[in-house]
Amino acid sequence: MRNVIEGSKKAFITGNEAVAWATLVAEADIMFGYPITPQNEVMHYWTRLAPKHGRGFLQTEDEISAGFTVCGAVQAGKKAFTATAGPGNVLMQEPFGMAEAMRLPLVAIIQQRGGPSSGTVIYSQQEVTLTTFGGNGEGHRVVYSTATHQEMYDYTIKAFNTAWKYRFPTFVLGDGYQAKMREPLDMYNPADKGIKMVKPYPLVGLDGQIGENREPQHLNNIYSLEEELYDAVLEFVKDYEAMTPDVTEYSADQCEDADIIILSHGVVSRAADDAVKILRSQGIKAGSFRPITLRPFPSQELRNVISNSNAKTLLIAESAYGQLDRLVKQEIYGETVNIENLFMPGVGIIDYDIANKVKSIL
Amino acid sequence: MMVAPVTPKSWYLPSKPHKFCPGCGHGIVLKALGEAIDDLQIQDKTVFGCDIGCSLLSWDFFACDSTQTHHGRTTPVMVGIKRSRPELITIGYMGDGGGYSIGSQHLLNAAVRNEKVTLILVNNTNYGMTGGQMAPTTLPGQKTETSPYGRDPEETGYPTKGPEFLAEVTPEGAYIARATVSKYNQLRRFVRNALRNQIDGNGFSFVEVLSTCPTNWRTNAQQTWRFLEDEMEQYFPVGELKSPFGKGGAK
User: Fold this and answer.
1) How far from B54 is each of A16, A197, A263, B34, B152, CA to CA, in Å?
2) Numbered residues of chain A with Cβ closer than 8 Å to any chain B Cβ
3) Given B44, B67, B131, B155, which residue has the most CB atoms within 10 angstroms?
4) pLDDT band, residue A2 (cuts 50/70/90)
5) CB B168 within 8 A of CB B79
6) Please, which pLDDT band fits residue A338 given cuts at 50, 70 and 90?
């Protein structure tokens, strides 16, 4: 496969374009998609770039079909992905559930928009619950929440490797701001950064002659007996827990001496980091913690940060009404730290929103 | 002395005897499909996909690579496989509920796009696996669990004629037929044509097969066959509606 990008390339582009380039350098073979704002330009750039690099695309009749065609393509051994948002993310939970059940390494880019229902086409962090636990199962999936265009690029590449290495469906959770706004980033070929792309392999359509040198493959996601399903789910749990230390990511800043830790994810974490600077300049000891993987969640890491700091208070800031808050509370159950919140569903959060909230608490 | 019946080479024997009810037509359809796979020597490159409903009981029926999907979603999964690996022969197997109701927009759009997949849809006029509810294909007046006084077309419309609407929306090159388990040689020919058509790369290939469901119809053997031949075949005419092989063409 020839280099998509020669050397490293500075770019000033939208997050959707960054995603399209990242899927290309990540050696994605085919995209299946359906129009929904704010992810459309992922398709627009992919459809322009893909034919030049021998990659495939199909615009399906709906998001259900986009998700299931991706399931078929990965079963056939191809690196396939989709991108969606909002009500499209709702429809895709059905194929995402099948991917969890059959351990299909699909990759999906989610650019969150406002909800419930059609909401807005602009921005939110209201697809956290849906993206992490949206299926009729146990949430055996990996969800990276990105904060910058650089991360959209980096984690889109990483998502393919995580999916194909561990065979859990993997999500890059962005939002309308990241999708639509322009920002500088470095684009590169993974090999130039020492990143080795995991090779895909087929689950059906294998080489060889059945009965001569191989057995037929029979993939299924439904079971006759309770115990059969129980054994299958426990196997998923075992693999998921074994994977968790390898894929969990977070960042923490100035928490050691902090009186208050601001906890946020995605693009809001940038406002949190700026709020920390503002507050510190005013003599208020604030720190910040950001889960990069929302699934699996960095629970022990957050517990350690809390116990190694002076913080009596955790402020959870999110552009949703408590979706991150619920996730955090279940993950750190038993901690005695006081939890405050700044919930701004479907609305952007800036540094002063957080700084003012902190001052109103302390 | 027990004599084992002759079975297609492409059948997966460890899963036999199969799991369908006595008198069900699925076994006949799957025998025709198995013989067609053998005839065309495509066992090693076939991917068989089955839907939810009674059709899912075929998930380990063939000694072919197989995958089982969700209700109505076999069509897009087969499309995803075929688009990714055009050298594979993809066969989607579904019932009338999966194809004509919950998966109807997938079926319609796959046909419009002339996807190079072969779909076999078994029409037994009801949802068998879930206990005999009304299907898009339930005949006027037919009693089911959700039309206990008989299907009233004024309330719930007339039965879906799948091959007829698919023949309207597909371009030349598509293969569209309706067969019945009561005419085995014709069924086998139609199924083989539908596979041949994919192998040749002509276009979308679809066979609806009229089939029997004595369990949910609550019919004995004679009544079952009478309903199939006298009522279903009257309403749903059997034959090739569109074929690149010409009238009566058999390959």
Assistant:
1) 42, 41, 50, 18, 25
2) 29-30, 32, 56, 58, 60-62, 64-65, 68-73, 75-78, 80, 94-95, 98, 102, 202-206, 208-211, 216-222
3) B67
4) low
5) no
6) very high
Q: What tens digit of pLDDT does each residue of B57-99 get? A: 999 999 999 999 999 999 999 999 999 999 999 999 999 999 9
Give the pLDDT score at B250: 52
Average pLDDT over residues A172-201: 97
Amino acid at A111: Q
The amino acid occupying position A78 is: K
Q: Is the peptide bond before A87 cis (omega within 30 degrees of 0)?
A: no
Interchain proximity B83–A56, CB inside 8 Å:
yes
Is it the case that residue A101 has pLDDT exceeding 80? yes
Q: Do B70 and A58 touch (CB under 8 A)?
A: no
Question: CA of A88 to nearest chain B CA: how many angstroms apart?
Answer: 16
CB atoms within 10 A of CB A332: 18
Look at B63 and A216 and tell me if their CB atoms are within 8 Å: yes
Give counts: helices (H), strands (E), chain A: 12, 15
Residue type, A159: A
d(CA A72, CA A66): 10
What DSSP state is assigned to residue B232? I
Beta bridge partners of A144: A172, A293
* Paired sense of beta strands A182-187 and A9-14, if any: antiparallel
Question: Is B109 in contact with A30 (Cβ distance < 8 A)?
Answer: no
d(CA B248, CA A154): 58
pLDDT, tens digit, 9 for 90 and up, residues A256-300: 999 999 999 999 999 999 999 999 999 999 999 999 999 999 999
Q: Are the Cβ atoms of B66 and A219 closer than 8 angstroms?
A: yes
Taking contacts as CB-CB distances below 8 angstroms, the residues of chain A near B43 are 210
Are B47 and A205 inside 8 Å of each other by CB?
yes
B69 vs A71: CB contact, 8 Å cut-off? yes
Count of beta carbons in the 10 Å neighbourhood of residue A221: 21
Q: How far apart are CA A41 and CA A149, in angstroms?
A: 14
Cβ contacts below 8 Å, chain A against chain B, sum to 129
Q: Which two tokens stand for residue B201?
A: 């790369």
Q: How far apart are the first and last CA of chain A?
A: 57
Q: What are residue A205's phi and psi, to 5 degrees?
A: 70, 40
Residue B157, classed as helix, strand or coil, is coil
Quick one: pLDDT at residue A4? 86
Quote the CA–CA distance of A95 and A106 in Å, as a whole number.
10
Which residues does chain A have within 8 Å of residue B12's beta carbon, measured at their own beta carbons? 216, 218
Tokens, residue A360:
């109103």
Reading phi first (left if > 0) and then psi (alpha if -120 to 50, else beta), residue A211 is in: left
Q: Please tell me the pTM assigned to this model.
A: 0.96
How far is residue A291's CA from residue A67's CA, in Å, rounded to a whole number?
27
